[in-house]
Specification:
It is built from three helices and 18 strands. The protein is mainly β. It is globular, with a radius of gyration of 21 Å.
Length: 416
């Protein structure tokens, strides 16, 4: 059995060794100058969300009507720099001041090796804790969306539950440097410490917000029993079975990116460490980002998969839920101004075990964002968000399954 001490000890040592090298980094041509960026996000939120999932409820927004008003959106520090001419480090630390287990936590910490090229092929390897290459929105420092305060539901879920803690390699053919005009990449990874992946989308369904779970933090468990913690910690190794993902990308630089990926954490749904259970979670994702002129961006992403837990004769889980989401985003830049509109479609459905837990979500989300760049590191963001539909789990808490949640946020950001 993997104990809590084993989990934290192994993961802490790995991340500490990654972070330890950062202060002695030496600039190199491949990585560029070292950078240390601090970003402060303070905001005012007004919402009619009844009780947010961050407070143990089923509200899909980050803030609820009992916790709106002035908020710390996020305080983050990100370091990037070279250790040698071919080896670099990346560390991101955050706080959201929302009473998580750790007031300050890491969201990413990894090394990246880029060996010297000898042909049109490029090879990169990451080792540590990082996001898999799925999101086409979250391109900004600290894995933030470049187009709105809150990313789409797909990328919200990635920030909540998923991190690669292991090794990832990619091979890229730079056809754009020839008359072919396109770069082609293959990517694969092996990882551990992600066996609870799936519990949040099973209990609550999709959500839309900008809070990322720290590597040593968690979220309140909504339907806790006597054997469970009241907080879900997502980054555990429970069954000693590594997961993997495989993907491919085609890109026409500064014009079009096409990306597909298959993910399988190979969780054993029978396994438990006494606090958290292992979930078998698999999904496929696809997306495109199209940029025309220098000022307009179109993004579309799709994800479809299932998650399961509990012993069963076929090993595929006693409780099993399917999930699917897609979104379309259009964003335009007009001098220092940015306008963004996004539509999200959110669905989950119980495939097995309805008599014990019947989860169902059928909802739509609209996001309208406006950003203004003051220059010298200052930004203003205003975002209106509405999610409307049906969430059957609400009836388990005595609520109407039909819901509509609206949130208005005004954020001031400063980075230096």
């Amino acid at each position: 059995m993997i104990t809590e001490g084993t989990r934290c000890g192994g993961l802490c040592r790995a991340l500490f060794l990654v972070a330890l090298g950062c202060p002695v980094a030496v600039p190199a041509a491949d990585w560029g100058e070292q950078s240390l960026e601090v970003q402060v996000d303070v905001r005012y939120a007004s919402t009619d969300v009844e009780r947010s999932f961050t407070q143990g409820g089923l509200g899909l927004g980050r803030f609820d009507e009992d916790h709106d008003g002035p908020q710390l959106g996020r305080l983050s520090l990100e370091y990037r720099g070279a250790l040698t001419e071919t080896l670099g480090a990346h560390v991101t630390a955050d706080t959201y001041a929302d009473h998580d287990k750790n007031p300050i936590d890491l969201t990413e910490a990894f090394l990246e090796w880029r060996p010297y090229p000898s042909s049109a092929w490029r090879w990169r390897t990451k080792l540590g804790a990082f996001y898999p290459p799925i999101s086409l929105e979250n391109r900004d420092t600290g894995w933030r969306s470049s187009y709105s305060l809150s990313p789409g539901a797909i990328n919200t879920w990635l920030g909540e539950e998923l991190r690669t803690i292991g090794a990832e390699s990619s091979f890229t053919w730079l056809g754009s440097r020839t008359d072919k005009g396109v770069d082609l990449s293959l990517i694969g990874a092996l990882y551990g410490w992600n066996d609870p992946l799936g519990v949040e989308i099973f209990e609550r369904g999709w959500a839309i917000h900008d809070r990322q779970t720290g590597l040593f933090g968690g979220l309140p468990k909504i339907f806790a029993d006597s054997t469970s913690r009241h907080q879900v910690e997502f980054f555990h190794e429970i069954d000693n079975r590594p997961g993997y993902y495989l993907g491919a990308q085609a890109s026409w630089p500064e014009r079009l990116v096409l990306r597909v990926l298959h993910y399988d954490n190979r969780g054993d749904p029978r396994a438990s460490n006494g606090y958290e259970k292992a979930w078998l979670t698999r999904f496929d994702s696809a997306g495109l980002r199209f940029e025309w002129q220098p000022d307009w961006t179109l993004i579309a992403q799709w994800m479809n998969g299932d998650t399961a837990v509990g012993a069963s004769a076929d090993g595929l889980g006693f409780l099993r839920t399917a999930f699917e989401s897609y979104f379309g985003l259009v964003s335009g830049v007009f001098g220092p101004h940015r306008l963004t509109v996004r539509y999200d479609r959110l669905t989950t459905n119980t495939l097995r075990g309805e008599a014990y837990f019947d989860g169902y979500q059928d909802a739509n989300g609209w996001t309208f964002g406006y950003g203004f760049d003051f220059g010298n590191g200052w930004q203003l963001w205003i975002e209106g968000l509405q999610v409307k539909g049906e969430l059957e789990q609400r009836s388990l808490l005595g609520l109407d399954p039909d819901f509509r949640e609206r949130t208005l946020q005004c954020a001031f950001r400063f980075r230096y």
